[in-house]
UniProtKB/TrEMBL annotation:
Keywords: Membrane, Transmembrane, Transmembrane helix. The keyword Transmembrane applies. It comes from the Bacteria. This is Uncharacterized protein. The chain crosses the membrane at residues 25-45, 51-77. It comes from Skermanella stibiiresistens SB22.
Amino acid sequence: MAGMSGTGAGLASEDAYVRRMRPTFGYVMALTWLAQMGAIAWVIVTDPAQAIQIIAAMASLGTIWTVGLGVLGVYVYRRSGEKRASQGGAPKPSY
């Protein structure tokens, strides 16, 4: 696992946060999305006149969500490769 660009180092780390960083990031992304969508839904339901402005404003958040979800996707992809390698399977080629 050490040859996988240092990703195995995070799992072997003595620091608890380093070992849990990927799941923590996933949970933070999920909670942030839930809070944002809940707030948007609440405003649309309680003040329908603002719905058009709220939906238009959501478009400006697309870039930040793209970056965050891209990072999360890389984390998931790399962790899947680590699990496959630890089970004796050949890791998929890295692109």
